[in-house]
Write a structure and sequence with these properties.
With about 260 residues, the protein is mostly beta strands. The protein contains 4 helices and 14 strands. It folds into 2 domains: about 140 residues, Hotdog Thioesterase (Thiol Ester Dehydrase, Chain A); about 80 residues, Thiol Ester Dehydrase, Chain A (Roll).
Length: about 260
């Protein structure tokens, strides 16, 4: 185990990633297609970088998409907490890192970090993943073969907001829409970042997000009807993306500057 000790800088920590010897990293450059209307990396784009990083690590360790497809098993994201200092602009060189922090029962825990070219930490995230047996249709305990390739490090010293997002009363109902093919991932479920984009679509402008939490309740698939509910309270905006019975597929909480 490695303990990445470092002080807080606001809500984002500043650490030397070389201290975390089990971190997997890759580098990139911000593309025009990844920008929001303010000319910065979009929030779904940030989520995609984080997800891609964990996928690349799993592929290199031999426990990637095809490995689990053959076993009819999959890691499904259950919860995000993402903290943002700033989002990079067009053309910026970036480095994305991830490492596992624990495997407890049915769940895996993973941290993510986004750095700019100078090594400044721009964003970090905590996440919880459930291990699903597709034949049984429920979470199961992963075998040692599925988790032993990963080394674990102590989690980043982020302030944990809790994995359950409270649902405000009196949310405003918005027009429903159907899940389309472009929303889906290789598991034929709505991609994790797409739920965040759906929530952002309800905003009148494009404010700077400082924190986003997402609680994933169940997977939406092609043709499902999604009913959004929007509420603001106590410095936060909460969007519930629900089925026809008002049971949420995902709850997205955003805190702005």
């Amino acid at each position: 185990m490695v303990h990445p000790t470092a002080p807080f800088v606001g809500r984002i920590i500043s650490i030397n990633m070389e201290r975390i010897c089990y971190m997997y990293t890759f580098t990139g450059r911000i593309r025009y297609s990844e920008l929001d209307k303010n000319g910065k990396l979009s929030l779904p784009g940030l989520i995609n970088y984080f997800q891609d990083c964990s996928t690349f690590q799993s592929e290199e360790l031999g426990v990637g998409v095809e490995f689990f497809r053959r076993r009819k098993q999959v890691w499904v994201l259950s919860y995000w907490q993402i903290e943002i200092t700033r989002l990079p602009k067009l053309g910026e060189q970036i480095k994305i890192g991830t490492f596992a922090t624990a495997f407890n029962g049915l769940y895996g825990h993973r941290n993510f970090i986004l750095y700019d070219e100078s090594g400044e930490m721009l964003s970090c995230a905590d996440s919880i993943w459930a291990f699903i047996d597709l034949d049984k249709g429920r979470p199961v305990r992963p075998s040692e073969e599925c988790v032993s390739p990963y080394e674990t490090a102590d989690p980043l010293p982020m302030k944990q907001e809790g994995r359950k997002i409270s649902r405000p009363a009196g949310g405003i109902a918005y027009p429903s829409f159907s899940v389309a093919r472009h929303h889906l991932d290789t598991n034929e479920h709505v991609n994790n970042g797409q739920y965040v984009q759906m929530a952002l679509n309800l905003l009148e402008d494009d404010p700077a997000v400082k924190r986003v939490r997402v609680e994933y309740k169940k997977s939406a698939v092609l043709g499902d009807e999604i009913l959004p509910y929007y509420a603001k309270e106590a410095g936060r905006t909460v969007v519930e993306l629900c089925d026809k019975g008002k049971n949420p597929y995902a709850i997205v909480e955003m805190v702005f500057d």
